[in-house]
Amino acid sequence: MTRFYDSDAVEEAFTQFLNDGKYRKTPERYAILRKALEMDSHFEVDSLHLALERDGYHVSRATVYNTVELLENAGILRKNVFGQNTSTFEVARSNHIHMVCRECGKIKEIENSHIAAEVMGLNADGFSPASFAITVYGICRECKDAGK
Question: What is the pLDDT of residues 63-121, one digit of tens each?
């Protein structure tokens, strides 16, 4: 899997966030951060908790939920809700498009430099975009071929 970030830099940014907010720097929080960075694509908090348990790292589900919220507030994770009322998370990176199949729920991410230039060039009422993630809903090729 391609990584879009430097995990050491992400960990340093999280440490700075914790310091700035006067949050405790616990081994559990860093274990959750590292495991979140290892997750493939989008994940639910419960699947992150299970992945930690499978690796033999026992931490409460509440601690995972609270830490994911901190990671989101720190700008390290991005929360997505793709129509099924279930929150998923991904490592926050800018300027990509989610293509979500309304039939099977599969999510494909793409980058498009033309769309990126258009969106980043928006200047509505003095607003200056910093990053974006766009969600497009439709039907994937597999579902279309299957006649769904």
Answer: 999 999 999 999 899 888 876 667 888 888 767 788 889 888 888 888 888 888 888 88
pTM over 0.85: no
Are 112 and 140 within one domain?
yes
Report helix, strand or coil for 61: helix
Do residues 37 and 10 touch, judged by C-beta distance below 8 A?
yes
Q: What residues form DSSP beta bridges with 99?
A: 108, 136
**Could you give the angle at which helices 27-38 and 7-20 cross, rounded to 10 degrees?**
140
Encoded tokens for 21: 């907010």
The dihedrals phi and psi of 115, each to the nearest 5 degrees, come to -65, -40
Question: In this structure, what CATH number is given to the domain that contains residue 30?
Answer: 1.10.10.10
Nearest partner of 44 among 109, 105, 99, 110, judged by Cα: 105
β-strand pairing of 96-101 with 87-91: unpaired
What Rg value do the Cα atoms of the chain yield, rounded? 17
Co-location of 22 and 44 in the same domain: yes
- CATH for 125: 3.30.1490.190
